[in-house]
Amino acid sequence: xxxxxxxxxxxxASSAAFAQLDVPAPSPFxxxxxxxxxxxxxxxxxxxxxxxxxxxGGIVPFDAYWRTGxxxxxxxxxxxxxxxxxxxxxxxKYSFFTKPGNSSWEFYLYKDLTFFPNREPEPxxxxxxxxxxxxxxxxxxxxxxxxLENIRxxxxxxxxxxxxxxxxxxxxxxxxxEVQASIDRLLSGPTTQDYAAAINYTLNANGDLNxxxxxxxxxxxxxxxxxxxxxxxxxxSAMEQKGKAAxxxxxxxxxxxxxALDLHQIARxxxxxGDKETAYSIFSTNAKRHPDTxxxxxxxxxxxxSQGKFKKAIQHAEKALVNSPNEPNTQALKAxxxxxxxxxxxxx
Length: 348
Prior knowledge:
Elements: H1 2-19, E1 29-36, E2 39-46, E3 74-78, E4 82-84, E5 87-89, E6 92-99, E7 105-110, E8 126-132, E9 135-149, E10 155-173, H2 175-187, H3 192-204, H4 209-222, H5 226-238, H6 242-252, H7 260-272, H8 276-289, H9 296-306, H10 310-322, H11 327-341
Antiparallel strand pairs: 1-2, 2-3, 3-6, 4-5, 4-10, 6-7, 7-8, 9-10
Helix pairs in contact: 3-4, 3-5, 4-5, 5-6, 7-8, 8-9, 9-10, 10-11
């Protein structure tokens, strides 16, 4: 009996050891990351070996779809749009497979990453379909290989090689157009977004506020936009010129280029600064300019709540609930209404 038990324990131990055994994959996984111009390209595929076999027309039949690799599907990912076979391909990750032939191959770039080419591909998932001419070599390519070769600023060739065969797929990248657009933007001078970014950096770094104010004035002179207006308000606040900030905000409240959401955010900013009078004025102006538009009633609910007028606040919060744009706002409004019913200020 003891001998039988010992044998069973030895079998269990050997099974556990076998289960933990780490062995090489017959077709090891490969990941290639390559920069082409201004675009990042990532290849992921597995690499079977010839191992003395006849490949094309043998283990890989002619005129049949082939996963073009081993194990999982092979994939290619572009960080920006590219052009393949006169077709614009949006940025994203795609699988690719082929249909090898003796004198011509079909190449498929496919939107479905789970597709195995053991059946007819579905047309709606085909991003690119093109024919390629295989190139023969006298040198053996033992291990299946996918790579980007002949790399230039605006182009590269996708090479697929195995045994004595290679196919090459040209890919065009929009590098020249991107660089030209960047040059045009740079030479045309800074944008309001550039000024806003510079102002935010200066404020965070406790930099030259007079310089920041000059940038803010230039930004709003170029374009009356929410980022430009907020940048100027933040600079004036940092300079402790709250009165000037309030006067400027009240002036901008009548500007037709600022929408309901812009004015709502400006009013909330003044609430946060403790200037309720300016905030009330902007909330009221916003309500006159954009009646019953989201988030007008939210602003009025906040205004009346801060004044302790909870019944009026509830009325506007319930109106806001009717035209809430999404579930998070709906839940937030429901929670706010419950607080108002308890006599709590929803601004705190």
